[in-house]
Amino acid sequence: LSILLSLLVPADTTRSPDCGGILTPSGLRYLAEVSKPHAESVLRKDLMVSPAPAPSPAPQSSRNEIISVKVDKFSLTLIPDTGMRLSIEVDLGITSAPSTTKDMRLSILAELHVEMNPEGNLELVTSDCKPTLEEVQSTEETDRSAPQLSSSKSSGSDVDKQINIEKICLEVSKLLLFPNERLMSLAAPFPITPRCQVQYLPLAAPMYSEQGIIISLQTTFQVSGTVIPLPVSPVPFSMPEPARSSPAHLILAFSEHFYTSLFSALEQSGALNVSLLSSLTTATLAERITQMGSLFQEDLPVVLQVVTRSSPHVVLEEDKAILELFLTAQIGAGSSLFQSFLSVNVDVTARLHLSVVDTRMIISVAAVEDIELSLATSDVGPILAALLEELFLPTIREEVPAQINEVLRQGVFLPHIASFTYTDVNITIHKDYVLIPCNLQLEART
Question: What are the coiled-coil residue ranges (predicted)?
């Protein structure tokens, strides 16, 4: 694979990915590590429960009872082009009488993969499961730290029947900490503002390569519960193959089109329209522009009502993310009854700062690099145009970024499954895409 994610692009261009992620072999090892105590808890409940009485009860002395369950090994490995292999070894302590105890080892080898169900959700599926149960023989001459397995299987024994190996295989995916309920949470809608939501929809079942499990996602945005149409990316999203030795658990990638779509959604929701109170009043403005004195009989605050006149655009370059805003400012007087007396076009070029907190990407305007003001009407002379720029440019330069940062202060949720957060995040901005290698961390339960 020299290009990732683009391999998953369907023929329909309206269903192109604009972001995605790779769960690396390191990430799978971490999921296995945090799933081990969970698996032990589940197996204890399943195996140590008292069996139902048989029609002809056996004597109490011959009845097998599992008195201890300990998961010794729990691993999750990648099988390129196929899926994942789950390997579990469980040590069981079994007693058939108060004075008789024997050690057994339950081994489970299962093949897992993720499918997309008809509802469009990802679903963890078991394609094969092979359980075995063997007795561990320890003698006086054998080191207890290295018990030997007997060559004879206990298949068909009373212990086998009590353990109900078939049931364990049917529910083997529940031994992991990301069952299907958590996978479904990947496609849940997340709030950005009270009116705007983001949703990451899987485009296809994941692919499996040596680099990890590759998931391709398309972002949709909702305003007041309705999915809004966004411009289609001119080119399908793809990203370079990551380093195979990457220690990160997960590598997320977001296209330039993702960020443009985000700000377009905010623009369509009205979140970028702001009302700015300048430091001027009609009286102080009349000192510089004499015509103002005849327009307003009383001294009123001067207000700028700023609205977007076309969709914003984000440009990604090496180590730099640039936001381009195309605004129109209606300059007027009065806060309750607004009276506009001039219209000015404002083009803002601002640098964005990106960071990650838990599972949210914090996007903020770090610095305004350029602002251009142009009068929307041509019947005003250049002297007045220069004067308006002198009077209102500082307000626009300071307040527009502050208002945008206020809109985005809660951050934008990243694709994630429930109960996991991101740590050790390293954001790298490249031309056309942003790469976010990070580690997974299981949230502490309260």
Answer: none
